[in-house]
Amino acid sequence: MAIPYASPSFDSVVSCLGVMFARHHQTAANELLRVTTLGGRIGLLSWTPEGPLGRLADLVNRILPTPQTPALAPTLWGDEAYVIGLLGDRVTSVGASRQRHEVDRFASPREFRDFARHDYGPTSAAYRKLAGRPDGVAELDHAVVDLARDHMTRRGLMQWEYLLLTAHRAG
Predict the structure, then answer these.
(1) What domains are there in the chain, each with its CATH number?
(2) 96-112 burial, b if ≥16 CB within 10 A, otherwise e?
């Protein structure tokens, strides 16, 4: 939320599954624009709220105790209208499309849960926060398995949906 570069520094600014996890969305969007040159390109890739990784983020937020200053849902960055609202009239030539990344590495919903627990940063952090609460760990385990079951085909294929949004900084 405080990019350590001068204004403006880059012809292209890209975030792939990063800026969506910033606590203050408008501040983060302002920073992306600040470091982008006039006419420069901004590219954002974020999980959609409806896709399995977006739903995973939402269920983690539901299960974890609410912090004193709640963060906005990361999956809002996967909603085209929301991101355009953050960037406002400071961008032109907005292009947005929902796409899917096919993942076939999980043989079962439990294998996906194990990945989410040990190898997927946001969920792994949630499990660490729940370490002293066996009931919370069990709830998250069951929720992740159910989510994977809902999004996995019989052949173990999952479609991880994301929003790809590009724009030019208005000049």
Answers:
(1) 10-169 (3.40.50.150)
(2) eeeeeeebeebeebeeb
How wide is the angle at C-alpha 76 spanned by C-alphas 12 and 26, nearest 5°?
A: 60
Note the helical H segments in 88-151. Answer: 109-118, 121-129, 134-151
pLDDT digits (tens, 9 = 90+) for 40-91: 999 999 999 999 999 998 888 888 766 656 678 889 999 999 999 999 999 9
Distance separating alpha carbons of residues 65 and 158, to the nearest angstrom: 29
The model's pTM is 0.89
Per-residue CA distances from 122 to 21, 38, 129 (Å) = 9, 33, 11
Task: Classify residue 152 by its DSSP letter.
Answer: B
